[in-house]
């Protein structure tokens, strides 16, 4: 049945909605695809629902082709299983929590690993039942601190989440690869360029983890890639660990006066003026004091030594210390630890180690991988306005561990030896994880193996944000006039516009719409009787159906215009030619 | 693609699940359609999802045919609009309420009148935009006090809720009729017998309201119907109000001693023994003391006078006093009101009215419609062990109002004069309401009419419980072996069972499955290699696919058995005949 605009539930808006900063947010609202209900929560109008359904169909088809079976869980889930895996706490404020009338604790699930694990535990018991991959397309909730950019970071979103179950690591590799391949096909069908990057598993736990990023300068994620094929998001990038440097011949550390040098910049200038040598920030060791808040509420100070030419990357620090929350130490923290001389902190002092092994402060000292054995540094001497040079790692100080929180820069070597990396930006469009046995262990999912022994199942988790992808497609496909949908997900295949004043234009447009619909196309027919052609064209450009047929003055002579929304080309054609062109693919 | 049982996510259970009392609950779990997650909250397995999708398709097709357009709202909604209509309070404990990280109040929507009203207000402004009917198929939440019977009364359920918007009452009638007709078609297509009964609008407010009930002795709703076509649920039944009776010639009330007669039964026996006349319970006036708890927490006593042969119907009382909560008065209530002499309460006393107008107690006195002007009663005299006779309504006492809380009985006259009613039981399968202007007024939904004046929009609300219907179909279609799906909603059209030990049975079964699938049927092929035919047959009966093909010993000779799950008939046929029979409709 042809959809007629005269009674279609649509009202396009002339004005940009307040607070909508990104194009997809602005245009999806203006063109009548979604309506905001609360911060980061949207209702779907008929146009939006059509696009969403098309994306879901692509996802379902590729899941079926990959042998995944569809199930469906409620959004409202009881606390217990999330408690067992620690995520009831770990998710912090991101979780919408509530109680039922009996005081039972529930949550709106941000993801369903626990539920899927328990379902399989509930029903399956043998390795013969595996492998199994099951998925759902479902509405999820996360109480984001700053919901923004419309559907790109909302508090409710539709996600396809799949989970694989295997009795062996080799099996997991196969299941993981099947989902990874399916994701490639999905993004290819949706016309979404992607890069697969190594990712950190974050709060999900587990081992192998890759993200599908759409590369775009406006992406909110940064990733690195080398010409030799290495790609990782910044959080997952690992620094190539340098070989140990021999230090037997090195001179002992020397303390020197360094008045007014609390910053690396002032320290380097002072060193070049007063020491023998030509120093850069990379020769200095910066010691950053951080405060971690652990899940149990405990606050812990840690000090991290990184080369002075590097900055702390907040996201890398977040991941490195997760699930603890990281912040910079406060004045109060320094006051409570008088051994820490702000601006002059270092791992060594003439009276013995201040940080690291046998530390007098009791504060953990972690270092960047570049602070390897034998490296020599100019660094704070733990005395006001004094630094020391020739302070050698592994001789004068020993760290309690290695941590990756320094920023990654273009030119840094890829850890796999594939050359220097470049930085790029992207938007996350999918994520595949090898969860391993974390959830199965926490929830007791075991099966009998070939030898009749109970083995813990190994799992994978695979997510695509359906509504997020919709927004990204909108973000990538628009101009100043409105949306321009790719044919694969357009709400309609063609929009027919009756643009004349004469009845004949309407009669021809109605006939043509019926013909096209009968040929299997989804047709939106703008039959509004008293709306000017200009307004109709403007609405068509805003709504973004890829092909538009204008039935106007030439209608009486059997002539129409075929308008390509993307190229802007308008071709005058006979009706038969227009039908031929539209139905030929 | 043929679905093969060997890797289909299904595990049938031999044992009935604990606490599952009704057949649909028991069988849907045992046969692997759903799994419980919490009280009244279920996950959907592949089989269940298939049946649900088929029901949703029928609903979507009929909604489209009725001109309704699909939208979708989130389950998580902000408090404000529900506050404006009073439902944030009215819903009481039925509502799942929660707060976000900023302390904002939210709810899990039990229904979406407010959201739809605001959406239309947001986008439309003229009578020319109307009529409009929009709907969604969406997961809703109600925190039922006693979730039970599986999907029949869960705390999460999938519902199709439609809302119509019109600028005139006549328009509403048309929109209402279109949905009502669509509901009839939906139930006809699903093979669900139904009765349309007048219903009380309950917490929804509004005027015309009808329920679609499936008549069944195990239904939880009681309804009445007359041979003349009247049908109503018990809550909506109205008592025919008798004409006033002349009472000029009646004697004045007379007090008499009635020791030990606190019940109607003892009072009638005493009256027949000591008064002149032949009395039945219907001659006595029973005065029931009820305690109402209002939304604001205020507790109010009311007394209701009903004929002594009637009982209070709890559901009718609930509806009559909604949104207040009704309970029987407590001992404490009586102690606080010493004028109420328990067992001997009446509306009249020798010292003046105790109840009703100018009541000394200050308690509201309401009466059943049968206690009309001029009716004469034996009733309490407000003195211990004393009653009075010849107490005449409209002369000796005056009620503060009429209320319908007495039970309805077979033989009671239908209010429309269509004869005596009979009582029957049914299950609610759909509900259509004329909401009128309640929501539009509360939320300010107005449009300009033909004369450029703002008029408040009038609305309808139309609901079908998709998951409830699925359960009801399961409830009506099973035997001691398992489920028996009607073809219109069966998860598969045919189940092919390879029942032989020889490879030939498997080869033939696989070929046949492919042939049937290619002919457009959904095929479930039981290809499990080491499972006995008996177990396979048992599973097939439990799962309930309507047609089963057994490929066994005769396979080598090209012979199979076609088994009708409902009738139990098994016909030996050639493969070609079996294909012909299965694909001929």
TrEMBL record, chains A, B:
Catalytic activity: tRNA(Pro) + L-proline + ATP = L-prolyl-tRNA(Pro) + AMP + diphosphate
Superkingdom as given in the UniProt entry: Bacteria
Family annotation (InterPro entries): aa-tRNA-synt_IIb, aa-tRNA-synth_II, aa-tRNA-synth_II/BPL/LPL, Anticodon-bd, Anticodon-bd_dom_sf, Pro-tRNA-ligase_IIa, Pro-tRNA-synth_IIa_bac-type, Pro-tRNA-Synthase_IIa_type1
Alphabetical keyword list: Aminoacyl-tRNA synthetase, ATP-binding, Cytoplasm, Ligase, Nucleotide-binding, Protein biosynthesis
Keyword Cell membrane found: no
Record-listed E.C. numbers: 6.1.1.15
SUPFAM superfamilies in the cross-refs: Class II aaRS ABD-related, Class II aaRS and biotin synthetases, YbaK/ProRS associated domain
MF (Gene Ontology): aminoacyl-tRNA deacylase activity; ATP binding; proline-tRNA ligase activity
Aminoacyl-transfer RNA synthetases class-II family profile domain span: 48-486
GO cellular component: cytosol
Primary localisation category: cytoplasm
Cytoplasm recorded as keyword: yes
Subcellular location field: Cytoplasm
GO terms of biological process kind: prolyl-tRNA aminoacylation
The record's note on its domains: Consists of three domains: the N-terminal catalytic domain, the editing domain and the C-terminal anticodon-binding domain.
NCBIfam families the UniProt entry points to: PRK09194.1, proS_fam_II
Function: Catalyzes the attachment of proline to tRNA(Pro) in a two-step reaction: proline is first activated by ATP to form Pro-AMP and then transferred to the acceptor end of tRNA(Pro). As ProRS can inadvertently accommodate and process non-cognate amino acids such as alanine and cysteine, to avoid such errors it has two additional distinct editing activities against alanine. One activity is designated as 'pretransfer' editing and involves the tRNA(Pro)-independent hydrolysis of activated Ala-AMP.
Subunit architecture: Homodimer.
Family to which this protein belongs: Belongs to the class-II aminoacyl-tRNA synthetase family. ProS type 1 subfamily.
Protein name: Proline--tRNA ligase
Gene that this polypeptide is encoded by: proS
């Amino acid at each position: 049945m042809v959809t007629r605009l005269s009674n279609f539930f649509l009202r396009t808006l002339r004005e940009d909605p307040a607070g909508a900063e990104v194009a997809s947010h602005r245009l999806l609202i203006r063109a009548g695809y979604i309506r905001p209900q609360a911060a980061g929560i949207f209702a779907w109008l008929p146009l939006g629902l059509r696009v969403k359904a098309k994306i879901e169909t692509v996802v379902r088809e590729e899941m079926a082709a990959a042998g995944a079976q569809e199930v469906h869980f409620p959004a409202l889930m009881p606390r217990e299983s999330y408690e067992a895996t620690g995520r009831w706490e770990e998710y912090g404020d991101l979780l919408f929590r509530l109680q039922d009338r009996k005081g039972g604790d529930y949550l709106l699930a941000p993801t369903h690993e626990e539920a899927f694990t328990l379902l399989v535990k509930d029903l399956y018991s043998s390795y013969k039942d595996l492998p199994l991959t099951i998925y759902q397309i479902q509405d999820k909730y996360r109480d984001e601190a700053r919901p923004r950019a419309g559907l790109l970071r909302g508090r409710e979103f539709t996600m396809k989440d799949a989970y694989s179950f295997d009795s062996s690591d080799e099996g997991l590799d196969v299941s993981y690869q099947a989902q990874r391949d399916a994701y490639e096909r999905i993004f290819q069908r949706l016309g979404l360029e992607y890069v697969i990057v190594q990712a950190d598993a974050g709060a999900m736990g587990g081992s192998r983890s890759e993200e599908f990023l759409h590369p775009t300068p406006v992406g909110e994620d940064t990733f690195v890639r080398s010409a030799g094929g290495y790609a990782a998001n910044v959080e997952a990038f690992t620094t190539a660990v340098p070989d140990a440097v021999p230090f037997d011949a090195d001179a002992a550390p020397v303390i020197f006066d360094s008045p007014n040098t609390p910053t690396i910049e002032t320290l380097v200038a002072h060193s070049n003026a007063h020491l023998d040598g030509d120093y850069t920030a990379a020769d200095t060791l910066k010691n950053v004091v951080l405060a971690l808040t652990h899940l149990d509420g405990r606050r812990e100070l840690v000090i991290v030594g990184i080369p002075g030419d590097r900055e702390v990357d907040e996201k890398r620090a977040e991941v490195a210390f997760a699930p603890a929350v990281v912040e910079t130490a406060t004045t109060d923290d320094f006051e409570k630890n008088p051994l820490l001389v702000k601006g002059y902190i270092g791992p060594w002092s003439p009276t013995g180690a201040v940080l690291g092994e046998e530390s007098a402060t009791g504060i953990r000292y972690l270092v960047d991988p570049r602070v390897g054995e034998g490296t020599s540094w100019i660094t704070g001497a733990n005395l006001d306005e004094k630094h020391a040079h020739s302070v050698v790692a592994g001789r004068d100080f020993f760290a309690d561990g290695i941590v990756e929180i320094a920023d990654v820069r273009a030119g840094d070597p890829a850890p796999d030896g594939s050359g220097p990396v470049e930085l790029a930006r992207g938007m996350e469009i999918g994520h595949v994880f090898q969860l391993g046995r974390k959830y199965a262990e926490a929830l007791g999912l075991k099966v009998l193996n070939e030898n009749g022994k109970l083995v813990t199942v190994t799992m994978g988790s695979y997510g695509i944000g359906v509504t997020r992808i919709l927004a990204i497609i909108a973000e990538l496909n628009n101009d100043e006039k409105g949306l321009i949908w790719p044919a694969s997900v357009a709400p309609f295949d063609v929009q027919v516009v009756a643009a004349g004043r004469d009845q004949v234009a309407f009669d021809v447009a109605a006939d043509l719409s019926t013909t096209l619909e009968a040929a299997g196309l989804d047709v939106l027919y703008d039959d509004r009787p008293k709306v000017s052609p200009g307004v109709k064209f403007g609405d068509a450009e805003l709504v973004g159906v890829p092909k538009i047929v204008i039935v106007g003055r030439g209608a009486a002579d059997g002539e129409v215009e075929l308008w390509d929304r993307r190229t802007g080309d308008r071709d005058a054609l006979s009706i038969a030619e227009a039908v031929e062109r539209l139905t030929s693919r």
